[in-house]
Amino acid sequence: MLLTQYLDHVDSRLAEPHRRLMAAVLKAVVDDCRDSVERRAAPAGDVPAPRSLDEAFDYVASTDRVWPFSFENLCDALGMDAECLRRELRSEESL
C-alpha cells in the first residue's frame, strides 16, 4: 500500500497540525526513496547524488527513537508498521 493511500484512510487525528507535519515528513522520505529508484534507472545525466540517496535510506533503516521525528516515531504516531514499510522500500531499492 502506498503511503498516500494509507493516509487517505487515516481518521480525523491527521487533522491535528503535528500529525500533518509527521505525515508530510514521512511522505517526503518515502518519495525520496522511491524517486531515487526511478532516477537510478534513468539515463546517465539524471542520476541523483549518492549522498542524498544514502541519507534517505539510512533514515529509513534507523531504529533510533531519541529524535521525535525519527522514522520509527513517525510510523508509530501515524499507526504504521515501520518494519513493513522498511521492507517495502528495501525491495524497491533492489529493483
Structure characterization notes:
By secondary structure, the protein is mainly alpha-helical. It has one domain (15-93). It has 5 helices and no strands.
Q: Runs with pLDDT <50, length 5+?
A: none
Output the number of helix runs.
Answer: 5
What fraction strand? under 5%
Quickly give the structural class: mainly alpha
In percent, how helical is the residue content?
55-70%
* Approximate shape: globular
Number of DSSP strand runs: 0
Order of helices and strands: HHHHH
State the distance separating the first and last CA atoms.
17 Å
Major sheet attributes? none
Overall pLDDT, averaged? 78
Number of domains: 1
- State Rg: 14 Å
SSE arrangement:
Layout lengths: L2 H6 L8 H24 L9 H12 L9 H7 L4 H12 L2
Helix pairs in contact: 2-3, 2-4
Structure at a glance:
This protein is mainly alpha-helical.
